[in-house]
UniProtKB/TrEMBL annotation:
InterPro entries: YezG-like_sf (IPR036170). This is DUF600 family protein. SUPFAM superfamilies: BH3703-like (SSF160424). The lineage of its organism: Bacteria, Pseudomonadati, Pseudomonadota, Betaproteobacteria, Burkholderiales. It comes from Janthinobacterium violaceinigrum.
Amino acid sequence: MDSKDVEISKEIGQCLYDIAPEDAKTILMIAALSPEGDVSQFEFYSNNGINESEFSINDSDTMKLHYLAGAHQKFMVANKQPAWTRCEFTVNVDANKFSMELGYEEDAFRDGFLR
């Protein structure tokens, strides 16, 4: 049985897989989340092995990812970790693996792009 943070991460990965372009080999989500978890900003990129492109998602998928990111952040805080404010979540479709890099920037929200 996986720990709660791994379960949430798997849900994020599945959601990204479901909403990414069909030819995606790599999917990248960059998320900025307030320390309280109530405000978020996302960017999504896919790479088909030749080109990388940004893609957008609908509001309900954005809300789902906001909820999952917030749940992950809350789990970390409940386990005596600082509240992360930036996340780069990568899905390697061919390998069926994901990675999650967390950041603790004071101001993770940026004008323009997060990248």
